[in-house]
Amino acid sequence: MSDLFEKIVSLSKRRGFIFQSSEIYGGLAATYDYGPLGVELKRNVRERWWNAMVYRNDNVVGLDAAILMHPKVWKASGHVDAFNDPLIDDRQSKMRYRADQLIEGHIARLRKKGKEERAEAVYERLVQALNAEDMCGALYDLIMEEEIRSPDSGAFDWTEVRQFNLMFSTHIGPVTEEENRIYLRPETAQGIFVNFHNVRETARLQIPFGIAQIGKAFRNEIVARQFIFRMREFEQMEMQYFVKPGAQREAYEMWRERRMQWHLDNGVRPEKLRWHEHEKFAHYADAAHDVQYEFPIGWQEVEGVHSRTDYDLRRHQEFSGKKMEYFDPHTHERYIPYVVETSAGLDRTILMLLCDAYHEEEVNGEPRNLLRFHPKLAPIKAAVFPLVKKGGMPEVARALQTDLQPHFYTVYDEKGAIGRRYRRMDEVGTPYCITVDGQTLEDGTVTVRERDTMAQARLPKENVAAYVRDKMEAWSPPA
User: What percent of the chain stands above pLDDT 70?
Assistant: First the structure.
């Protein structure tokens, strides 16, 4: 784990963003709890996504489907038979790895050493292996021929590659028999597909239209590491966009552009984002790209945009016996719509924002750590300080906090020197700090200090809410 990644993990716990789940019992691997600041950051990201997907599109509506669904849903979707990862074990360290990611790491190392021609040859073989009839055997052969060693032990002592299904199963009702087996959903998309007609009819929608959903999903990740990047319980922000067959490519490119712009609008540095085209499509897709971010652990996916064809609706029509066709009132055609999906990991987005916002610098010979969040995403929007704890300043500061609270999340802090209070707020990403001092008692003005530049402005305290709102609207990432 890199130094930066360790700093992010440490900061997350120390300042109340993210805690290890069940920590007092030794923790539960690959599960995490969001603390007071983390839950605010998460809520802000959710709301910003919902605003972009639903409120700003007059043909996209929302849904909140149940986590538990009829087991036939997952048979129809292909998850029962095909939701697997190719895994390989290092006999020395007993660690388990995804075989394709081992090979991708090997390719990255070759490129770093300037061995582009060999890296490209291995990459081409990886693509062939992923699409081979015996994928596991082909991946194993490639690992053996390239003599790829274990990242943890350095050993070259592998088991064969095997497929593992990632779904959690449980039983419904009092009897744990096979016919009562159900699954915790591994994705939120199927809840949208099975409600296709319910939503379309009640919302009076015509093709093209979208259905958006934010919700929990569960995967029994065998290789679950890297903090909140890969968890067994996680949250997805998904939208399924239904189009006429033949119109999917245009919609696909439209949503690719919009989704990348959303990440940029959140203040993420452009040089840290890129598109990655899939080498192997899922069984339902005819096009697939990932938005990748350059984490301290390397380039990794934060969102996928997929053209899912009509696979899902057609399969649910087959397994349920219910028609999933759409009647087009303009052309009088009947057809099963094609689908373009945008699927972002909420937890991965949180981790990306933490990594991208983290910044260290030196001010007057002293270190300053800060999180340069977009102000609209920052957990705390403003902090109010009395310069000292006497002379009526705390009372005025408390009253100002009360005035600001209806507009945005505001906190009060009177402990420690004013410089230390600024540093505390910088470290959690608070964009604006308001100080009540002796002059405030004379003329009613306060000092507003900006996180990124540390610049200060003096203004009447009754103007602070409008000033902060205007600043948040006009904010752009520091150069």
Answer: 96
Please say if the pLDDT value at position 158 is more than 80.
yes
Q: Check: CB of residue 169 under 8 Å from CB of residue 83.
A: no
**CB-CB neighbours of 97 under 10 Å:** 24
Residue carrying the six token digits 């439209």: 254
Q: pLDDT at position 2, please? A: 74
Q: Would you state the pLDDT for residue 251? A: 96
pLDDT computed for residue 81 by the predictor? 67
Q: Which helix (H) or strand (E) holds 394?
A: helix 393-404
Tell me the chain's radius of gyration from C-alpha atoms: 26
Cα–Cα distance for residue pair 295/301, rounded to 1 Å: 10
Prior bond of 86 cis (ω within 30°): no
Closest by CA to 106, choosing from 125, 134, 87, 86, is 125
Q: Which of 401, 437, 402 is nearest to 418 (CA)?
A: 437
pLDDT in tens, 112-143: 899 999 999 998 898 888 878 788 899 999 99
C-alpha dihedral over 201, 206, 210, 214, to 10 degrees?
-20
- Please identify which residue in the block is written with the tokens 């591994």: 186
DSSP 222-251: SS--TGGGS-SEEEEEEEEEEE-TT-HHHH
Res 376: pLDDT: 96
Closest by CA to 364, choosing from 422, 302, 322, 324, is 422
**Angle 135-158-228 from CA coordinates, rounded to 5°:** 75
Q: What is the pLDDT of residue 67?
A: 94
CA neighbor of 141 nearest in space, from 153, 130, 155:
130
Compute the half-sphere exposure of residue 233: CA atoms within 13 Å on the CB side of its CA. 10
One-letter identity of residue 333: E
Question: Which residues make Cβ contacts (< 8 Å) with residue 160, sequence separation at least 6?
Answer: 88, 136, 140
What is the pLDDT, as a whole number, of residue 191? 95
Lowest mean pLDDT among 77-81, 244-248, 309-313: 77-81
